[in-house]
Amino acid sequence: MNIEAARLLPPLSTTPRLAVIVEPDQDIWHTYKRFLIPRRYIVHQAVNGQQALAIAKSDPPDVIVTELHLNGVDGFTLCELIRRQPTLSKVPIIVVTSDTRPHSIDLARSAGADVVLAKPCALADLFECMEQVISASRAHSDPTRGMCGGCARLAG
């Protein structure tokens, strides 16, 4: 992830947005955090789906970004649990994963992921995708319409 090139992007959000980032790799999580905070994101960390669900229930986020393979409650189950919560069911979920097997992509989509992106994903592309799905969610449109950034967007 080229954080230097990504720093050149202006902040698009005029009001702070809340993101729950579910990423067990501390280096990746800190990279996301350092990139998103100057772009007016409040970033909460979770290392598994159980933590993410608890955070989301207490303070519903604008977007959830998750890896699929987590200890305990994994990303697949997290997507299902989020979609079953009346107060969270419309929150956009972006999966960023190195698991690009068609079966895993299909499972993520059927569990409720709006977008599945392949790791490594450029920070600017992830940010663009986050902005797009949040805007679509607020406009009550399909967040999966339109291409999100230059990451390898994975079709199921």
Outline the structure in words.
It is a single chain. By secondary structure, the protein is an alpha/beta fold. The protein has one domain (17-138): Rossmann fold. The chain is built from six helices and five strands. The chain has helices at residues 3-6, 26-36, 49-58, 75-84, 102-111, 123-138; strands at residues 17-22, 41-46, 63-66, 93-97, 115-118. The chain has a five-stranded parallel β-sheet, sandwiched between helices. The longest helix has 16 residues, at 123-138. The model has no long low-confidence stretch (mean pLDDT 86).
Features:
156 residues, alpha/beta, Rossmann fold, five-stranded parallel β-sheet, 16% strand
Number of helices: 6
Distance between the termini: 25 Å
Please bin the fraction of helical residues: 25-40%
Approximately how much beta-strand content do the residues carry?
A: 15-25%
E-strand count: 5
- What would you call the shape? globular
Task: Tell me the count of domains.
Answer: 1
CATH third-tier fold name: Rossmann fold
The top level CATH class name: Alpha Beta
Give the CATH architecture. 3-Layer(aba) Sandwich
- The CATH superfamily is identified as Response regulator
Instruction: Report the uncertain regions.
Output: none
User: Major beta sheet, specifics?
Assistant: 5 strands, parallel
Listing every helix as H and every strand as E from the N terminus to the C terminus, the arrangement reads HEHEHEHEHEH
Order the strands across the largest sheet as they lie in space.
Answer: 2-1-3-4-5
- Give the averaged pLDDT, no decimals: 86
Q: What class do helices, strands and sheet pairing give?
A: alpha/beta
CA gyration radius, whole angstroms = 14 Å
